[in-house]
Amino acid sequence: MKNPTFKKTQICLENIDKSIAVLQKKEKLLTKMGCVKAYIAFKTGTNKMYLRSPVDASGKRPSEYIGVDPVKQKEAKERIARYDERELVREAINTLNNEKNWLINQLKEASNLIKDLSSDATIYLKRLAS
């Protein structure tokens, strides 16, 4: 009979892997749909929208002209929202990977401790028998 704790731990690790896989698919989908790290700016006194990206390596701040079309403005806002969502998904993936690695390390330490205790018990029993 298998140890129920081992089986439960195995199921937990499998569930973490499944969650990571789901999140990775979501991350790819968001990327495919289009994401942009930017903020919205309007030309003073107009409804002309621009997307302003962070400063790049050359020290310039790229801008993307969106214009006044409400459909294009909505699409630009959705790209920003998808970027924010993708960042949260990436953070969740990293957290799950860290938790999984921590759990695996704890299991390894427990296994080594059990081996050490078993070895110590064997030595002790041999001494008693002599």
Strand percentage lies at: 5-15%
Number of strands: 3
Please give the domain count: 1
Overall body shape:
rod-shaped
Class inferred from helices and paired strands: mainly alpha
What order do the SSEs take from the amino end to the carboxyl end, as H and E?
A: HEEEH
Kindly report the oligomeric state of this protein. single chain
Residues in helices, as a percent range: 55-70%
Strand order in the sheet with the most strands: 1-2-3
- Are there runs of 5+ residues with pLDDT below 50, and where? none
Supply Rg: 27 Å
pLDDT averaged residue by residue: 90
Q: Termini, distance in Å?
A: 34 Å
Q: Biggest sheet: strands, sense, closure?
A: 3 strands, antiparallel
The number of helical runs is 2
